[in-house]
Amino acid sequence: MSLFDAILWPGTKVCERLGVDPEGDAGLIRWMINTLVYLVVGLIFVWIVVA
């Protein structure tokens, strides 16, 4: 498993659970899930550092 695969892991697992090919046209679904996951993680990190 490469670093690239580790970064895309949340979206890939959601696509697999939905029965969608994450490498195909549904890659945008994987991108959206990854964006939401890392947005939440980033906001929590910033909140902890600032507070």
Average the pLDDT over all residues and give the rounded result: 91
Shape by Cα distribution: elongated
Using DSSP, what is the number of strands?
A: 0
> Which structural class do you get from the secondary structure elements?
mainly alpha
Classify the beta-strand content into a percent band: under 5%
- Radius of gyration, Cα only, in angstroms? 13 Å
Low-confidence stretches: none
Helical residues, percent = over 70%
Count of helical stretches: 3
Major sheet summary line: none
**Series of secondary-structure elements, N-terminal to C-terminal:** HHH
Distance between the termini: 35 Å
Describe what you observe in this structure.
This protein is mainly α and 51 residues long. Helix content is 76%, strand content 0%. It has three helices and no strands. Helix 2 packs across helix 3 (27-50).
Attribute tags:
membrane, transmembrane, elongated, transmembrane helix, 3 helices, 51 residues
How are the SSEs placed, and which strands pair?
Blueprint: H1 3-7, H2 9-18, H3 27-50
Helix pairs in contact: 2-3
